[in-house]
Amino acid sequence: TRELENPQETAERVGLAALIIQDFRGLLLSDYQFSWDRVFQSRGDTGVFLQYTHARLHSLEETFGCGYLNDFNTACLQEPQSVSILQHLLRFDEVLYRSSQDLQPRHIVSYLLTLSHLAAMAHKTLLIKDSPPDVAGARLHLFRAVRSVLANGMKLLGIIPVCRM
């Protein structure tokens, strides 16, 4: 709904992400049926969804980052959604190692898509706006970590993350 600075560049980045994720979801040497309809779906396991999640988390940081990004208490992250995200974030190095061993980007793709789904579910329940400052700060740091891992994972796949969509 917002005016984008460069809509053509954003569209190109989202489109490339859609193609790259579609191609890298399976084994590199396997045949699959290419479908434009599947590539440009905005829901489900797509590059569009990855870009959307990254942009949404970036917007969250821009909105609340100034007041909450100084100190935070990790003990405030006791909710099941927070714990699931933290556990998944800890697997990033394992996924990178596995991908480097068999030279298959599908491990990174699967990891990033799962992380995006976890973040999308948590974003609905782990509110920042009306939470106590220590809880809000911890949650914002959690979402910031998710956005950072998403950005780094996408860059490894040759995708330039977008900050607005």
Automatic annotation (TrEMBL):
Q: What are the alphabetically sorted keywords of the record?
A: Aminoacyl-tRNA synthetase, ATP-binding, Ligase, Nucleotide-binding, Protein biosynthesis
The reaction(s) catalysed by this protein are: tRNA(Arg) + L-arginine + ATP = L-arginyl-tRNA(Arg) + AMP + diphosphate
Listed EC numbers: 6.1.1.19
- The answer, when asked if ATP-binding is one of the entry's keywords, is yes
Enzyme type, top EC level: ligase
MF GO annotations: arginine-tRNA ligase activity; ATP binding
Q: Which GO terms describe its cellular component?
A: mitochondrion
Swiss-Prot/TrEMBL GO biological process terms: arginyl-tRNA aminoacylation; mitochondrial translation
What InterPro entries is this protein classified in? Arg-tRNA-ligase, DALR_anticod-bd, Rossmann-like_a/b/a_fold, tRNAsynth_Ia_anticodon-bd
Q: Which family does it belong to?
A: Belongs to the class-I aminoacyl-tRNA synthetase family.
Q: What functional role does this protein have? A: Catalyzes the attachment of arginine to tRNA(Arg) in a two-step reaction: arginine is first activated by ATP to form Arg-AMP and then transferred to the acceptor end of tRNA(Arg).
- Name of the featured protein: Probable arginine--tRNA ligase, mitochondrial
